Amino acid sequence: MRSVQALAVAILAMLTAYDPTLAAEPKPGGIFRIYHRDSPGSASIHEGATYSLNVPFMPIFNNLVLYDQHKAQNSLDTIVPELAQSWAWSGDGKKLTFKLRNDVKWHDGKPFTAADVKCTFDMLMGKSQQKFRQNPRKSWYDQVEDVTANGDYEASFNLKRPQPSLLALLASGYTPIYPCHVSPGDMRTKPVGTGPFKFVEFKANESIKLTKNPDYWKKGLPYLDGIEFTIITNRSTAVLGFISGKFDMTFPTEVTIPLLKDVKAQAPNAVCVLEPNNVSTNIIVNSSNPPFDNIDVRRALALALDRKAFIQIQFEGQADIGGTMQPGPAGLWAMPKEMLETIPGYGPDIEKNRDEARKLMQKAGFGPDKRLAIKIATRNIPIYRDPAIVLIDQIKSIYIDAELDVVDTAQWFPKVARKDYSLGLNLTGNAVDDPDQSFYENYACGSERNYTGYCNREIEKLFDQQSAEPDLNKRKKLVWEIDKKLQEDVARPIIFHSRSGTCWQPYVKNITIMSNSSYNGFRYEDVWLDK
Amino acid sequence: MFAYLVRRLALMLVTLFGISVIVFVLLRIVPGNIVDILFDAAGFVDPTDKANLEKELGLSDPIVVQYFKWIGGLLQGDLGYSYVSEKPALQEILPRIPITAKLAGLALLFSASIGIPLGVISAVHQGTKLDYTLRVISLSGLSLPSFWLGLLILMASVSMFGAMPIFNPNPRMWTEAFAIYAVPAMAVGFRSAALTMRITRSSMLEILRQDYIRTARAKGASEASVNYHHALKNAVLPVITVIGIEAAFLIGGLIVTETVFNIPGIARFLVEALRWRDYPIVQNLVMFIAVVVVTANFIVDMLYAAIDPRIRYGD
After folding, report:
1. What is the pTM of this model?
2. Which string of DSSP letters, residue by residue, matches A120-132?
3. Chain A residue closest in CA terms to B263
4. Is the ipTM beyond the 0.90 threshold?
5. Using an 8 Å Cβ cutoff, are A488 and A344 in contact?
6. Is the Cβ–Cβ distance between B247 and B293 less than 8 Å?
7. Are B202 and B236 in contact (CB under 8 A)?
8. Do B163 and A244 touch (CB under 8 A)?
9. A408 contacts in B (CB within 8 Å)?
10. Chain A environment of B43 (Cβ under 8 Å)
């Protein structure tokens, strides 16, 4: 009798532990319906700088290598081969060679070869006859001397100096391989790739449609018959559409925390995740003109920040405090908390920080009777405007009376490039959680995206040192040191790193939202619908 | 009459020419163009690449040259290419016109078919509970912003029916096809219906006090005949004027409604094109809207003569 009871308990335990979706065989078929937050300017990933492009068009392409689509945290260890079967570094770390697949065809039937790899990177480096209309990630390949095709199925990247993180850049959703035989103009309107889905149509402000590539080189994939993106610019309409079941998934990492609550209340079966997205909200300081050319005023500004208050007001406490690099545990390069708290303005005692800030302001000639009047410029969209308003409130405590100067998106970057601002509230998204991308892009002397014009040759030497460092632990320590110096210099004070939500219907399987980038996780080749 | 028509048509052409100049110049006065947006949104400003693209798009030509290139093309049916999609502007605009036309037509129909009868009822029952109720409804129609009403309708649809009437290019049933136009048309037409109702009511009240209405009643005409045959026919003139003006104003309401209900019509497309400074699309769409408005005004003027025998357009 006892053995029968034990058997019954065991069976019951097995049944309760059994999740049918885990063991279920993927079901082929179905159209995956997602709403898209806006109409991307074109279909060419290489010519864009927004993940509005990556989400719908990444499924058309393949990279040489790619971040594992089912590991939320991107790192060098999660990089898997795609068009490359394998890769190898030379002994001196200055040559990276890829062995390519020989069974891959472009969607128009032409074979994929190493010439396509060379073409793609020649265009990215601005070395080819054909040019992109815009080439926002040209600087990613500054250390690449050239790319050579060794026969049809081998390609090598020859570097000026060792750069271990090149592989991280190549694994980004921003680095698809383009065909040589299709012009950049055609890639903007009718992209051709080797990926799991073929381009069908892109109706501006309406929809983007992809269909299954039946000749995909990964046999048996993709499971879906197609993907349809309906462009809905009104966020409320879009979320209501998801709740009513018109869509299988929201636009990735686009659901705010209050909306996430609405979704869970009205569609309790929906699967929702809230992940960090490697986007920092920061202050750009014009240090070329008074009063912020004075380091004391800049330091006072950094000391006045109550980061927790920002996070509480905007994210109901669900965002992260950190330096330039994304905070842990999702971020790979974040400095330890103890180190972070030694940076002025990061300590827990806000009143003590602000006392110190007021002293610095008084030293610079400001005080209760002589308040500093400035404007805080920012883009006229809520994710920029809202923290700017909180900032205005916080810096009142250090004798600064700021006025909000909202700027139309079309004018925002030209205004910043002209340095026509004193303080600006800015958002910085990182495509790859790697210091090379973040440091060179945002802080290197003369970099196009170094909006504040911050230039410190000593720190720049450290940028190069960390970039060439093959030992991961040594590199991390260097990165922490650099990040700390950048914050101490008030180069671009980081306020917080945001998190954002994504929801999908319970029958959508194999979705993974990346936790340290919003740009790399949309291949969708093994997503399937359990219905 | 012929001379009047010629004068009106000439005036329409002058108006359209003026609009073309104004829209062209205004677009170029607004800071930033497509090249600024494309390059600067990417945070990358290479002056040479930027200049090359401006040259490629014809933006580096003097403004007068740009204007005559556009107008010359327009007169030959060549609307140019969208800067964003790189497709012919005509190909981008044409499929969207029927969508907005259906929506606007339904909204106007809704406005007239609800506003006029309710206006008459309200006037005939002046001072009664029914009159007060209808006046409250009309006031709410004038006060509710259409985006708010639209969102409210969508939320109610989702919570009551578990579905929402947003645009679907391939509706499965006629009910869905009807709902995707009728519901937004009601949302945008509600304000217009309220206005029509108020104008009809006040115009009717004025007419109902006229001597000839008393005479008609004295001769034994039925109330329906007095109200609809004798009074409404004379009260409808200002209503037609208002409906004509509303047709022109509708485009503003449609921008919001097309956005909330996600309808890919020309109103929403115009806003998106403005956001991208897609000059060929904006210029041609504004000209299209101008032609519609000018023509609607012309039709309204002609209708006056058809409805009111006292109005004649002499030579």
Report:
1. 0.88
2. HHHHHTT-SSS--
3. A206
4. no
5. yes
6. yes
7. no
8. yes
9. 31-32
10. 49, 136, 413, 448-449, 451
